[in-house]
TrEMBL record:
InterPro entries: Phytase-like_dom (IPR027372)
Signal sequence extent: none
Protein name as it appears in the record: Phytase-like domain-containing protein
TM region positions: 12-31
Keyword annotations from UniProtKB, A to Z: Membrane, Transmembrane, Transmembrane helix
Species in which this protein is naturally found: Nodularia spumigena CENA596
A Pfam family the protein falls into: Phytase-like
Domain Phytase-like: 58-362
Length: 394
């Protein structure tokens, strides 16, 4: 009896801690590694000098980036279709040791030519390489948008990091491929810009920048576009699920020219449970609007068996959940054509870094722009502790 009385007089905080331990144990398998970004802070901008070359090749068209933590290097894919040089990716060093990013902190240290299945450089016009994701096998997956006008199909292929040689090619579902009457498939230059791999290296994700032709309209002022996220199982190299991602309408920014473009240029997997960062970018001829979202696939419907969203009642389809993390127009920075993002190393204070890059289109008025952020990533356990004990600081 005395033992029971002593137990009842334990401080309340001990009961809470014991409850947390029990709950954590019961739900560990369900929520392991599921994360959420609770804070983001801008820590600097850097641009490469205009017309900068490496090994006599102009650096530009940087459309996707991925971080190699083992070697503290970054790999950035160029979307040059072979007009400046052979399709390729660059190796970069980015110095974040001071906890900020500024001009001079980015140094090109390598360039790798992509080789086709015959071990030859791709022919000019054959590729439009946009997305890039590093595996744990010293290889990279790269996505190409193809060319609808020439009926050149998009692709997702794995390449050797060291040699650039093609190692394998993932099959693309027929609904994504353009046909001669242009009644189905990707829209030109609005296809597979994004590419990311889950931390466990089990799944790869890409997405169309805008809707497939048979799914709906491309993004317009006041009208978003129903894009598709495509999930691959890397254990069997097969596509297995698709999800509806609704892009935001085109942002109006002094649209005197009447020109506009908008879409989903990249995704970044945060965990193995379907949580990502996504970039949406709008261009209206006189400026860029860029937004960073946190997204979740958890409650989204799998639509891989639906060949056309226009042929069904799409209002009954549960899309990907989105939450605006940051409107980059709130930064004191002149934004360029932001198209890629990757997590970087931990900063001196222990928080994780995030890098965004722009595609300068090899245009004299645009820049190879790099934006750096400090992000706070929280696990479910930390979020639970915050709810139970709001006064605790983590």
């Amino acid at each position: 009896m005395k033992l029971i009385k002593k137990f009842l007089h334990f401080p309340r905080i001990l009961y809470i801690i014991m409850a947390i331990i029990i709950i954590s144990f019961l739900f560990a398998n369900l929520y392991t590694n599921a994360v959420e970004i609770s804070k983001i802070e801008f820590i600097g901008e850097a641009t490469l000098p205009r017309k900068l070359t490496f090994e006599n090749i102009e650096i530009g068209g940087l459309s996707g980036i991925t971080y190699d933590a083992k070697n503290n290097l970054y790999y950035a894919i160029s979307d040059d279709r072979g007009e400046k040089a052979n399709p390729r990716f660059y190796t970069l060093k980015i110095d974040l040791s001071k906890g900020i990013l500024q001009n001079g902190d980015i140094v090109p240290v390598g360039v790798t030519t992509l080789l086709n299945k015959d071990n030859q450089p791709f022919a000019s016009g054959e590729t439009d390489t946009e997305g890039m994701a590093l595996t744990n096998q010293d290889t990279v997956f790269i996505s190409s948008e193809g060319d609808v006008r020439q009926l050149i199909n998009p692709f997702i292929q794995e390449f050797s990091l060291a040699s650039g040689k093609t190692l394998r090619k993932l099959s693309i579902p027929t609904k994504f491929l353009p046909n001669q009457n242009l009644k189905q498939g990707i829209r030109n230059n609005l296809a597979f810009e994004s590419l990311t791999i889950t931390p466990d290296n089990q799944h790869l994700f890409t997405a169309t920048e805008n809707a497939l032709i048979q799914d709906g309209t491309a993004a317009k002022p006041n009208i978003g576009s129903p894009s598709r996220i495509l999930q691959y199982n890397l254990r069997n190299n097969l596509p297995e699920k698709e999800f509806l991602y609704k892009t935001e309408p085109v942002a109006e920014i002094l649209n005197i020219t009447g020109r506009f473009a908008s879409g989903l240029p990249d995704l970044l997997a945060l965990d193995n449970q379907g949580h990502f960062l996504s970039i949406e970018r709008s261009f209206t001829g006189l400026g860029f609007a860029v937004s960073l979202f946190q997204i979740s696939l958890e409650a989204a419907d799998d639509i891989h068996n639906i060949d056309s969203l226009l042929a069904v009642d799409s209002q009954n389809i549960k899309p990907v959940k989105k939450k605006l993390l940051l409107d980059l127009r709130t930064l004191d920075v002149l934004l360029d054509n932001i198209e890629g993002l990757t997590l970087g190393p931990r900063l001196p204070d222990g928080q994780r870094s995030l890098i965004l890059i722009s595609d300068n289109n090899f245009h004299s008025l645009q820049r190879n722009q790099f934006l750096a952020f400090k992000i706070k990533i929280e696990s479910p356990i930390i979020r639970l502790l915050r709810r139970l004990i709001p006064s605790l600081q983590f």
